[in-house]
C-alpha cells in the first residue's frame, strides 16, 4: 500500500508549460475560426448579380464562413453541351459542397438541375440558399428529390449548413 499520491512527482519545466499553454491557445483559436470550404455555386445566369453579392459577402471577415469559390465566374461561351458539362464537372470535382442559389430562374434551369445531380453523383454535399423568409415555391426538381437542406441567406445559417454538409461527406 502506498500513499494516496499515486505516482512520482515530476515537475514540468517553465518552457514546457509555456509550450503547452501556447498549443492549447492555438487549438482554441483555430476551433473558433470558420473552416475554409471549397464551394461550387450553382445558379441561373439571370441571378448572376445576386450571386456576385453572395460572393462578396463571403469575403467579409464577419461572414462566419469562407468560400473558396470554384464556380464559373462567367458562363461558358459554347453551344456544345458536353464541353460545358466537362468544364462544370471539373469545377465540381474541386469542391466539397455545391451551394445552389434558389430562385424562380434556378427552378427552370436545366443546368442548375444537372449541376445538383452531378454534385450528388460525385459525392458532394448540396445545400440550397434563398433570399427572404421562405424558399421559392418553385425549386429545381433535384433539390426536392435529394431533400437538400434549404437555408435563408444569412451568414450563420449558410456557414452552419456548409459545415454540416461538409462533415456528412468526410
Describe this structure in words.
The chain has 170 residues and is of the alpha/beta class. Helix content is 47%, strand content 15%. A five-stranded parallel sheet has the order 2-1-3-4-5, sandwiched between helices.
**For the report, how would you describe the main beta sheet?**
5 strands, parallel
**CATH architectural label:** 3-Layer(aba) Sandwich
The structure class reads alpha/beta
Tally of distinct domains: 1
Average pLDDT confidence is: 81
Which topology does CATH recognise?
A: Rossmann fold
Question: Which terms would index this structure?
Answer:
Rossmann fold; 7 helices; 5-stranded parallel sheet; alpha/beta; 170 residues; elongated
Write the layout of secondary structure elements.
Blueprint: H1 14-32, E1 36-42, H2 48-58, E2 66-69, H3 81-93, E3 97-101, H4 104-107, H5 110-121, E4 125-130, H6 141-146, E5 149-152, H7 155-169
Parallel strand pairs: 1-2, 1-3, 3-4, 4-5
Give a short synopsis of this structure.
The chain has helices at 14-32, 48-58, 81-93, 104-107, 110-121, 141-146, 155-169; strands spanning 36-42, 66-69, 97-101, 125-130, 149-152. It is of the alpha/beta class. It has a 5-stranded parallel sheet with strand order 2-1-3-4-5, sandwiched between helices.
